[in-house]
């Protein structure tokens, strides 16, 4: 059962289920999509990248109207595995039908059910479990613990907002990038781990969740909010802009340093991951827009989300999140008239001032060291100092040679890392010395 037949549901998880040998039943409230899935019993997924594209057909699929609780409960009752991809704000709305299906399973002693949670939320498993337990009540709690696995997943595949032109007459067609790895929390499964295609079971899974939210989602958001200030429409335009790319990379590198400090992760692997992400962000064929990536800045500024969450995480690990703060200031300046959340922030800033807006949307007070940094950066405006732009452009084409007095842990080393530069051994005739 795939709860949600949106772009991730069809373009990633439903496709993964189908290619792993399952019949896939989508639960969806969009009746046009439900009817089309039941009519065609298949749908096209277009894999796009800068050097070409191809289309794959996902077969053995059908759908149930999400408003029909009895039918939804019946599908969950008979499911072998399940996933959700509906959006964090929608999870409370689907708890009732999920619990209706779980009650049927528990009452008849069905095998355990694992639900893979494909939502951008740290501790989404705990959040969903609280919702389910509140709906089911104490009578089911003991059996629930033994019969339900709530499995966090890290969804890295990027999917753009589909336009009519991209659909080419088929409402089910979805475009995706080639990346299709699915990291999941191996410790959360009840019973055996299912043999899903490209599944990467891992523990402790907090590393993957933070890497996705505080590197991938953070970098994407920083590109979008800075790109909006320059009038860009597409994310690839933002990444092609050297100053924006440098600042996004610096923000992502701040989070990488925090992850390295907490989990002992490989600095080289994290740096390679950042470079790979920036390359994927630059996928012109995907057509991902600034408006989609920047949508709902209220949620993205929250203390547990990609911007403030990353800044607070870095601070807790002793990493100064200076570059992330610039991204936060850009989000506070995001004034897309078609984004209701953005307009609400702008209205609050006009009426109550930036200080009140930071307290309200960033969830911090004047006692936080980040408070004044965000206010100052917002008032200075969104720009990268010309000297930094020039230095970044030069150094990204040079090889850095540490000398005995120059260490990665030094203040100079921290400055170099902040603009996203790696420490490398010199090649003959290519050296850049710091003193």
Describe, in plain words, how this protein is organized in 3D.
The longest helix is centred in the middle third of the chain and has 24 residues. The strands form 4 sheets. The chain has a 6-stranded parallel beta sheet. A 3-stranded mixed beta sheet has the order 4-3-9. α10 packs across α14. A hairpin with a 2-residue loop joins β3 and β4. It is of the alpha/beta class. It is globular and about 60 Å long. Helix content is about 50%, strand content about 15%.
Major sheet description: 6 strands, parallel
Q: Shape, please?
A: globular
Which strands sit side by side, in order, in the main sheet?
5-2-1-6-7-8
What level of helicity do the residues show? 40-55%
**What is the structural class?**
alpha/beta
The average pLDDT is: 90
User: What would you report as the Rg, rounded to the nearest angstrom?
Assistant: 23 Å
Report low-confidence residues grouped into runs of 5 or more: 396-406, 422-435
Distance between the termini: 61 Å
Q: Quote the beta fraction.
A: 5-15%
Helix count, DSSP H or I runs of 4 or more residues: 20
């Amino acid at each position: 059962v795939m709860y949600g037949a949106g772009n991730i549901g069809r373009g990633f998880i439903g496709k993964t289920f189908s290619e792993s040998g399952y019949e896939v039943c989508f639960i969806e409230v969009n009746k046009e999509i439900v009817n089309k899935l039941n009519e065609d019993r298949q749908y096209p997924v277009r894999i796009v990248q800068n050097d070409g594209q191809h289309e794959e057909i996902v077969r053995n699929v059908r759908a149930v109207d999400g408003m029909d609780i009895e039918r939804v409960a019946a599908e969950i009752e008979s499911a072998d595995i399940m996933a959700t991809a509906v959006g964090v704000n929608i999870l409370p709305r689907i708890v009732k039908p999920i619990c209706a299906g779980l009650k049927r399973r528990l009452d008849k002693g069905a095998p355990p059910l694992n639900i893979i949670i494909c939502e951008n939320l740290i501790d989404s498993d705990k959040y969903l479990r609280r919702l389910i337990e509140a709906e089911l009540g104490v009578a089911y709690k003991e059996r629930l613990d033994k019969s339900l696995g709530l499995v966090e997943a890290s969804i890295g595949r990027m999917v753009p907002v589909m336009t009519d032109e991209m659909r080419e007459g088929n409402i089910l067609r979805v475009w995706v990038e080639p990346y299709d790895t699915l990291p999941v929390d191996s410790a959360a499964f009840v019973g055996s781990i299912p043999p899903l295609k490209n599944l990467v079971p891992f523990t402790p899974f907090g590393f993957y969740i933070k890497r996705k939210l505080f590197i991938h989602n953070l970098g994407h958001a920083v590109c979008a909010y800075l790109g909006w200030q320059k009038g860009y429409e597409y994310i690839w335009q933002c990444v092609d802009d050297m100053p924006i790319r440098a600042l996004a990379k610096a923000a992502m590198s701040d989070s990488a340093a925090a992850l390295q400090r907490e989990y002992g992760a490989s600095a080289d692997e994290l740096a390679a991951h950042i470079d790979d992400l920036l390359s994927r962000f630059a996928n012109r064929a995907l057509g991902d827009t600034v408006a989609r990536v920047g949508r709902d800045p209220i949620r993205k500024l929250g203390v547990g989300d990609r911007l403030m969450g990353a800044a607070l995480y870095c601070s807790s690990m002793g990493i100064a999140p200076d570059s992330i703060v610039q991204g936060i200031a850009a989000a506070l300046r995001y004034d897309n008239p078609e984004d209701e959340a953005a307009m609400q922030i702008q209205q609050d800033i006009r009426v109550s001032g930036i200080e009140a807006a930071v307290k309200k949307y960033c969830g911090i007070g004047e006692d936080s060291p980040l408070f004044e940094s965000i206010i100052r950066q917002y008032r200075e405006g969104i720009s990268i100092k010309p000297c930094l732009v020039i230095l970044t452009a030069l150094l990204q084409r040079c090889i850095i040679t540490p000398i005995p007095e120059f260490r990665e842990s030094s203040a100079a080393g921290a400055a170099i890392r902040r603009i996203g530069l790696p420490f490398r051994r010199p090649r003959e005739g290519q050296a850049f010395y710091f003193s």
